[in-house]
Amino acid sequence: MQTTVQNKVVHVAVGVIVRQQQILLALRSGKQHQGGKWEFPGGKVEAGETVAQALNRELQEEVAISVTQSSPLMQLEYAYPEKTVLLDIWLVTGFSGEPHGREGQPLRWATVAELTEIPFPDANQPIVARIQQLFATLAVND
User: Fold this and answer.
1) 84, containing H or E segment
2) In this structure, are residues 26 and 102 in contact, taking their beta carbons and an 8 Å threshold?
C-alpha cells in the first residue's frame, strides 16, 4: 500500500509596502528556498498570532518598520514540490521607520511598471498581477 506524503502548509504574512507609488522589495538570500529572487517582505505566522500581528512583527524584524495602516489584499495558496505556502497578502499603506535590511538583505523600491521585469519566486506572480490591476484601477480613479 502506497501512502502519499502531504506537504506541510506554511502560513505566511506578506506585506506589499507602498510609498509614493513604489513597492518595497527584499532580495532572498541564496541559501533560502527560491533564493536570489526578489520578494515582498514578510514571514511565517506563529501559533496564537493574528495575520496582522505576524505582519507587523515580521516587518519590524526584517525591514525595521512598524505598520500603521494596512488592509487585506488577497490570499493565495501555492504548492512547490517541497512545501505548500498559504500567503496572506496585505497592502501596507502606512508605516513608521525607514526601511532597511536588518538581516543584511538588499532592499529596493520598484515602480509598478518595473515589477514585470524583476525575478520573483513563482508564488509571487499572482501578487504582481493583482498589484498591477490595483494600481491601474487607482490611476483611472485619480
Assistant:
1) strand 84-96
2) no
Answer for the pair 120, 27: CB distance below 8 angstroms, yes or no.
Answer: no
> 43 Cβ partners below 8 Å, 6+ apart?
12, 13, 54, 57, 58, 61, 62
Distance CA 133, CA 39 (A): 18
**Per-chain mean pLDDT for the chain:** 90
Query: What does the alpha-carbon distance between residue 77 and residue 34 come to, in Å, rounded to a whole number?
Result: 16
Measured from the Cβ of residue 60, the count of other Cβ atoms closer than 10 Å reads: 15
Give the list of residues 6+ apart from residue 29 with CB closer than 8 angstroms, or none: 35, 103, 105
Q: What is the pLDDT of residue 8?
A: 83
**Residue 140 — very low, low, confident or very high, per pLDDT cuts 50/70/90?**
low
Cell of 30: 541564496
Q: Using 50, 70 and 90 to split pLDDT, how confident is the model at 139?
A: low
Please compute, for residue 126, the number of CA atoms within 13 A of its CA located in the half-sphere on the CB side: 11
CA angle 78, 79, 84 (to 5 degrees): 90
